[in-house]
Amino acid sequence: MKRLFTVAVFVVLTQYGFAQITPDAEQAIQRIKPSHIKADMTYLADDLLRGREPGTQGFELASKYVEAQFISIGLLPGVEGKTYRQPVTLKIGVVDNSKSSMSLIVKGKEVPLEYNVDFMLLPNLVNNVSEVSGSLVFVGFGVHAPELNYDDYQKMDVKGKIVVYFNQAPESFPSNERAYFSSGSVKYEEAVKRGAIGAISMQLPDDQRRSWEASVNRSSHGTSRWADKQGKAQNTFEQLKVTASFNPEKAEKLFVNTNKKLAAVIESLKSSKPQSFALGIDARMKVHTNITAIQSSNLIGVIPGSDPVLKNEYVVYTAHVDHVGVGVPMKGDSIYNGAHDNASGTSIVLEIARTYMNLKQPTKRSILFTVVTAEESGLLGSDYFANNPSIPKESMVANFSLDMPFFFHPVLDIVPYGAQHSSLSKPLTATAKYLDIGIGPDPFPEQVVFIRSDHYSFIRRGIPALFIKSGFKTVPEDKVDRSVSDVAWRSTTYHKPNDDMNQDFDFDAAGTHVKVNFLTGYQVANDPQRPTWNPGDFFGGKFGQQPLKIEKK
Fold this sequence. Notes:
By secondary structure, this protein is α/β, with parallel strands linked by helices. It folds into two domains: 16-77 and 304-543, Zn peptidases (Aminopeptidase, 3-Layer(aba) Sandwich), CATH 3.40.630; 93-292, Glucose Oxidase, domain 1 (3-Layer(bba) Sandwich), CATH 3.50.30. 30% of the residues lie in helices and 23% in strands. It is built from 15 helices and 21 strands. The longest helix has 20 residues, at 507-526.
């Protein structure tokens, strides 16, 4: 009877496409404890840690806690087999507003602009003082996308000039491609390639992701980049001597010497019609930057694989433990606890690690857990690791990132960012069928979520990745429209002091996120074939590479 039952189970599993979800894995997920997630979050989001900003004692307390959990779980040190800590040097630049300036030259007359009212300048992390003068050229979204038959630059020569563009990308682009071309670094890279010497960016007037006032407040924290072993800040685009952000409510000042109506220009952009033209004015910009360096770290733990060859390949799980620290008080509270962002993701990754350790038979591939720093500063910790991994770069086969997965209600469906680009969709689909949950599309592509968390650092290194959030489906008795409440959370609670443990979290739902990410990664870790980019995929074409053969040691 036992043999017949085992055969029946295998037939059912094979029928639904998840033959790799073994009885061992089924038993492991039965031991998931939502209370573990709540306990870890309770400590990591406590006022004692004062928002876990890198370089502070609060961040160090959080790191020490996670390191202790790695030890308790039984993970092996992931840095040269000796330590869990990978040092990361962060360069931080803060603009000295009193010494920085911007003015427009209109018909030979200099028009000074007001800092924090008309414009802000971004720190220059290469030179303490940098200035530039040049003609302004409008280049739409600043997007050159031949793959999508779109080019804002067209034949415009911007060499030696300052480019002006709106953030985001054409609405006609597929969701994740739109996110890619919305990236500031992609726009900077294109401008540098064409010889521009400065850049001015603006939000579209109806872009609600962040108000001008919020941007001004956040600018006081400065800009950070990780530094190489020689102490040089990376990804700085130093050919752009000065970069600025312009208040969209003041955008008319940049178009004053053209015959273009700003509203018509914006309407054309929204209709995905590329455009570029000279603005007929010059700008002078000068930025003074105070540059400091802090020492931070990533945490890396390993569960070795069981296969003599495949153990030299790794499935990587990632979460960021940092948050934004102490900031502007709201209702008397100045500590930005970051419970959901991202004490939750870190705690879920820890429970995923415990679940792997509960297996009787280790997976064939090794499992790597990375809890990283400085995500809030621009995915810096994960980008550092992806560029300087503690294991051979070619040995990483897949990444799963946990960041604000949303568990304010039972998880009945998921939104798996990245699934449409690689073969990871297959084990993910099998997991969803097994757990009887749905899979939905990106509900708000204008938020460019695909490029806003740590999985993207791995995608840029050619590694297929998934970033899984919950969808909006609810049980019948839930009378709340979660498509409204979950989205509202971003404006009422995201990056605010009330993102604390007083929220109505559903920790059973958090346990579902553990199951989804564990079961999907478990299948990948046991599959003889490593994940591949889909044929003709945009991101596979941009970043994908043929994996090197991993030889048996």
